Amino acid sequence: MPIPARLSRCALLCMTALLAVQPEFVLAQANEAITEPSATPSQTFRTDRPQPPDGTIPSDGVGVFDRMGAKLPDLPPEKEYKGQIDEAFGAYQRGYYLTAMDKALPRAQLGDPAAQTLIAEILSQGLGVKRDMKNAAFWYGKAAEGGDPAAMFKYALLLMEGNNVTRDKVKADEFMRKAADGGNPSAEFNWAQTLVADNPGDKGLKLALPYYEKSAEQGVADAQYAVAQIYQKLSDLPDEKKLLAREWLARAARAGFDTAQLDMGIWLVNGIGGPKDYVRGFEWLKLAANRGNVVAQNKLAHLYINALGTPPNPIEAAKWYVLSRRAGLTDPLLEDFYLGIEDDQQKAAIEAANKFRRTN
Which pLDDT value is given to residue 85? Predict the structure, then answer.
C-alpha cells in the first residue's frame, strides 16, 4: 500500500551520502570559467522532491513532438477496477482518519501488514488522533515483520535512530535492504547510500548503482542526481548510460534540487556530458543562486565578469560576490575584482545585495 514516506534528514546524520559536488573556479582562460566538479561525500539523506515555482525552470531543449508539431496521443481508456476495495485506505486518502483507523484496526489486529502500516502512519503523524510514536513504532514493527515495504522503510529509520525502539543498526540495515528490494523508492535510495558508505570507492558505487537507478526511475530527485554523477564518474560503464548522465542531472534540476541546478549550469558551461551552452548554463546557475545556493552565487559572479552566457555587468557580479562572501565563501579573484571597481558600483552592489530575497 503506497503510504507516503518523508525521510527525516536528522534521522540519518550518521550515514554518508554520495557525491555532493563542490566545484572550484579556475580563470586561467576567459572562456573556461568553471572547472569540472569534483565528487566528495555529503552527510545528507533526502527523499523529498521540492517543487519549483511556475515559470522558473530554464529550458533544456525542445522535444521531438515540439519539433514536429504533432499532437500528443490520447491516454488509453482507464480499465474498470474489479479488485477488492480497501475501505480503510480510501477513508485515509479522503482525510477521514478516524474512519480509516476504525476500519483498519480490526484487520491490523488480525495481522494484515497493510492495515498495520496505515495505523502506524496515522499515529505517527497525529492524524485525527493524538500523536503517539510509541504505538506507531509498535505497529510499524509488526507491519515490517509482515513484509510491508513502506513499514520496513519507516521501521528501519526508527531502528537507526533508536526512536521508541532499541537502536539496532544490523536490523535496520536488514529492513532497509528488504524494503529496497520490495520496491520502496525511499528505501532504494537510502540502501544505495548505505552501500556507498560501507564500501568506499568505485566498488560501493557499482553496488549502489542499481538501487539508485530504480529510485531515480520512481522520481526521487536525489537518486537522479546520484545516477548522473555515477554515470559521469565510472569509466567502465556502457556508452549508452554515459550519454544519459546529463539527462538524469536535468531531471533532478527540474525537480527543484538546487545542487543539481548548480551542477547543471556547470556542466553546460564546461561541456560536461554534452556540448557547451553558456546561455542555458547561466540560466541554471542564476536559478540556483536565487534559491540561495552560495556556490552558484559565486559562480554567477564569474559569469557576469567574463560575459559568459550574459552581457558583462560589474554591479551584478559584485552583488553576487557580496552575497556569497557574507555566507562565508571566500574568493581572492572576486575580491580583487570587487576592490577594482568604482566606489559607486560597490555601493550599488551592496544595496542590491541588501534587497536580495531568495526564491523557493
Answer: 76
> What is the set of domains in the chain, with CATH numbers?
248-360 (1.25.40.10)
Closest CA to 226 of 175, 254, 189, 197: 189
Give the burial string for 40-49 (b: 16+ CB within 10 Å, else e): eebeebbbee
Buried b (16+ CB within 10 A) or exposed e, 173-198: bebbbbbbeeebbbbbbbbbbbbbbe
pLDDT at 71 (0 to 100)? 61
Tell me how far apart the alpha carbons of residues 326 and 346 are, in angstroms, rounded to a whole number. 15
pLDDT range class, residue 283, cuts 50, 70, 90: very high
Check if the beta carbon of residue 159 is closer than 8 Å to that of residue 125. Answer: no
d(CA 313, CA 206): 44
pTM, rounded to two decimals: 0.76
CA atoms of 125 and 117, how far apart (whole Å)? 12
Residue type, 133: M
C-alpha cell at 35: 572547472
Helix (H, G, I), strand (E, B) or coil at 138: helix
